[in-house]
Amino acid sequence: MASWSLVSPLGAAALLGAALLLPGSAWLSLLCAVALIAAVLAAVHHAEVIAHRLGEPFGTLVLALAVTVIEVALILSMMLAGGPDKATLTRDTIFSTLMIICNGVVGLCLLVGGIRHREQLFRVEGASTSLTTLIAMATLTLVLPRFTTSTPEASYSPPQLAFAAAMSLLLWLIFIFVQTVRHRDYFLPQVDADHDDAHAAPPSNGQAWASAALLLIALVAVVGLAKVLSPQIEAALEAAGAPPAVLGIAIAMLVLSPETVAAVRAARANRLQTSLNLAYGSALASIGLTIPAVAVASLAFELPLLLGADAKELVLLLLSFLISSLTLALGRTHAMQGAVHLVIFAAFLFLALVP
Fold this sequence. Notes:
By secondary structure, this protein is mainly α. It has a single domain, classed as Up-down Bundle (A middle domain of Talin 1), CATH 1.20.1420. It has helices at residues 3-21, 26-54, 58-82, 89-117, 124-143, 158-182, 205-239, 245-268, 272-301, 311-327, 335-353; strands at 120-121, 332-333. It has a two-stranded antiparallel ribbon. Helix 2 runs antiparallel to helix 3 (58-82), helix 2 (26-54) packs across helix 8 (245-268) and helix 4 runs antiparallel to helix 9. It is globular and about 55 Å long.
């Protein structure tokens, strides 16, 4: 095991503890920012070790689940601390996650892979299953609350919220069964014979367990440091006059950074299927686990929860799913498709800052 991959998670965790004990230090905040980047890179390394040991699609599922569980904890802690002021945080974070994944991560993977390999292949069966499930879950959670009439604004009534949460969780569980058991072959990558993974022996059980423990430490450190740095981020956004929704974008980008790095590295190694597994698996887990958890907290603690996207967000969501459907239709991709997704992602970022 590389020494940096051992030191980075432990050092980031130590700095997280120091930041919690000694808040407000500018130098410590700078060190935390550096440690955050190091922990992201370490998380990617350990996730790849686990993926090599378990094989696809289990390896990518481990990273998606780990990141999403901690993302849920971060959102819930901010909701409980912020009260009514954080009523739209879940919506902003999930919408941002979808835009980052469907356009930013996927677009970057297609562009990097297309430039390096001209064309890349993937299994249409697996990718279309992921996208179909994601469209249904996003509609249940972000679109329908805008059009229901039982409650004002863009919210669900308690029975509607419970139904949407239960259906999101059910769809995610069925998808996991299909991905890992029923049709696992739909999600297996076509490994490049020149890639190291095609020849290297899998790590031992001991190495895999060690990487699992360090992955968990790294992810806790990533989210913890993100939360520690969030006051500075919020202050900077407020000073810049940025809309409140930008906070959700910042949270989503920080939490998704390990998966983004891992997905781009896989695309560069001509393993686009692994990239798509990571990207869409993370988006599905984000909705399938976050919405039920937030719904339970909202109902239990009577927290306000606004899920319905506004008109601009609905247009971007529709455009993203339409372009994604066309991108995944043929089972092969090239750089132009990546450029289109990245332009949509740029439009999302620009319109978030200049609504």
